[in-house]
Design brief:
Blueprint lengths: L2 H8 L5 E2 L5 H11 L3 E6 L2 E7 H10 L9 H4 L13 H11 L3 E6 L2 E7 H24 L15
Parallel strand pairs: 1-2
Antiparallel strand pairs: 2-3, 4-5
């Protein structure tokens, strides 16, 4: 299974923010849209990711408020990325290695979508459920073997 398979199911809605947007406005967008991350785009290029992890760290560092902070000052400016052709097992390893919950998928420089750790976990579980159903159906339909007759002709 590849990232493109998750993106196909997930749909194409993307939430982005400019690095010069206020953190307060970005947090409002995240809350209103019920999302955990925003892709930070500048002049059509991905320049960072803003997740609740960065927001919480900024609020704590800023004395409990977002104040006048800009997205640029708190975003992850080196986020993990993948391509639509990246295998899900590789994405899972990358996310676990960096404790990343969100990963933008890029086709060259074009943002194709964002996958979350939840998306990856759901895809793996769905795939395993399908495989389990197929195996159970196969076992249920297993042909009954005829017993070989005994050598003396008695069974």
């Amino acid at each position: 299974m590849k990232v493109v398979d998750i993106l196909r199911v997930k749909g194409g809605t993307l939430f982005t923010v400019s690095p010069d947007e206020t953190l307060a406005r970005a947090v409002t967008t995240m809350a209103e849209s019920d999302i955990g991350s925003l892709v930070v785009m500048e002049h059509g290029d991905l320049v960072g990711m803003l997740t609740f992890r960065e927001v919480i760290a900024a609020v704590v560092k800023n004395g409990g408020t977002v104040g006048t902070l800009l997205v640029r000052t708190v975003m992850d400016d080196h986020p993990l990325t993948c391509t639509p052709e990246t295998e899900i097992d590789e994405v899972r390893r990358m996310m676990l290695g960096r404790h990343a919950r969100y990963m933008p998928a890029l086709n060259g420089r074009t943002l194709m979508g964002v996958i979350s750790f939840y998306d990856v976990a759901k895809a793996v579980v769905d795939s395993q459920d399908f495989e389990n159903r197929m195996l159970k159906a196969y076992i249920r339909d297993w042909p009954v073997e005829q017993e070989a007759p005994a050598e003396d002709g008695k069974t």
